[in-house]
Amino acid sequence: MQILFVASECAPFVKTGGLADVIGAVPKALAPLGADVRVLLPAYPALSAQLGAGETVLDLGELMGGPARVVAARAQGIDLLLLDAPHLFERAGNIYLGPDGRDWPDNWARFAALSKVGAMIAQGALDGWAPDVVNAHDWQAGLVPAYLAAAGSRVPTVVTIHNIAFQGVFGADILGPIGLPPDWHQIDRGEYYGGFSYLKAGLMSCDRITTVSPTYARELMRPEYGMGLDGVMRARRADLSGIVNGIDLDAWNPETDPALPAPYDARSLRRKGANRDALMARFGLEPGAGPLFCVISRLTEQKGLDLLVEAIPALLARDARLALLGGGERWMEEAFASAAARHPGRIGAVIGYDETLSHLIQGGADAILIPSRFEPCGLTQLYGLRYGTVPVVARTGGLADTVIDANPAALDAGVATGVQFTPVDALGLQDAIDRTCELFDRPRDWAAIQRRGMKQPVGWHASAEAYLSLFQSLI
User: Fold this and answer.
1) What is the second-level CATH architecture of the domain 266-454?
2) What residue segments make up the domains of the chain, in order of their start?
3) What letter would DSSP give residue 332?
4) What percent of the chain has pLDDT over 70?
5) 157-161 vs 133-137, strand pairing mode
6) Would you say the CATH fold of 266-454 matches that of 2-246+460-473?
7) What confidence category does residue 17 fall into, taking pLDDT thresholds of 50, 70 and 90?
8) Does pTM surpass 0.85?
9) Tell me, which fold does domain 2-246+460-473 have in CATH?
10) Would you state the torsion angle of the CA atoms of residues 83, 86, 87, 91, taken in this order, to the nearest 10 degrees?
11) Using one digit for the tens of pLDDT, what is the confidence trace for 156-183?
12) How large is the angle between the packed helices 107-122 and 143-150, nearest 10 degrees?
């Protein structure tokens, strides 16, 4: 089976969030199952080395105001198709945002171009290779099914929603420049409160819809989670499924992780203590009686980190420690930096992101806090399970699907892998912190939860089989 993925980012080449991890992992997980997957990406500066090593397979002439071509290359075990359009993608910094922190004003053209080329490849523009199925990811690739539908193509399409909060909404006046007929500005196509949504256009014209966890799939049909598209999701209920994300078991392996001073496994959990010492030294933390909590996250209200600002006194009251790595909303960055300054030795904060440090944090912390208000899937809780770092999570989306709450029944049954809490507010988080500290004070129960988490199947194999089964059902 030949499958085309169309996406705006892919790890390890370019990454702003979990979307990149999925695009970098699923093609490699599908390959052993007999699938030939190629990934169409914009040729950002971070991919320039691959351009030089690749072969031009499609000359596009002028595309959205400048010359463009598609270059085929293979890197990191992934077959890439790179849309080389310097006028659209050769820009320093964030791939979506300009130096002023705002969306690039021509994002409508940049990602319409990506989708248009995806649709061309789907219709046989490449010599010797054409996909049986196209999988478009998030709004940046949302127009692929729309272009195919407008052209009368019968190539099956799947749209995967990684986060419905981002929908690619622009003015209706772009329809002409992007090459869609005026009648696409209708409520049963891409019209969205007077504007035009790339994601909605894709959802209304694709054959199937997936998202990244079963619970999130159900949540999307509710007004509080659907972000204005809950009606669309309810209308397409029969075509919607949730396939939980996995993680790269080679990149995230506590037995072989080069970022850890003391590699370990479920049988040698005591070695995790050496990583804990290294982590505390890195963040300038002093020993305490309670657990060492960590946060590795974007600092946003979606991630619920404003709730942690309120819950810091409860954490300190249990003589716990906090190591935080993240960046995002300025006021939240300042709040955690201020908390670290007020409580030296008890709270440490590194504002920004550091991949190597994130591995040390997972290897050294006792528990990871993930108080998201909504979470399509989440990956950090999966890393936590893999590293014996007990996840403390809000009961929502993929967090609810991947962590089993340590309530009395689950503890008695020997199935608990973490702590869930609801409602998702500051009091709920404080209660979860208290419960975690109580569990930590019972070393035998705590170690059992850690070991059980480390044995959970958090890789991509089962999910890759689910994707392949879905793709096969469309042919």
Assistant:
1) 3-Layer(aba) Sandwich (3.40)
2) 2-246+460-473, 266-454
3) H
4) 100
5) parallel
6) yes
7) confident
8) yes
9) Rossmann fold (3.40.50)
10) 110
11) 999 999 999 999 999 999 999 999 999 9
12) 60
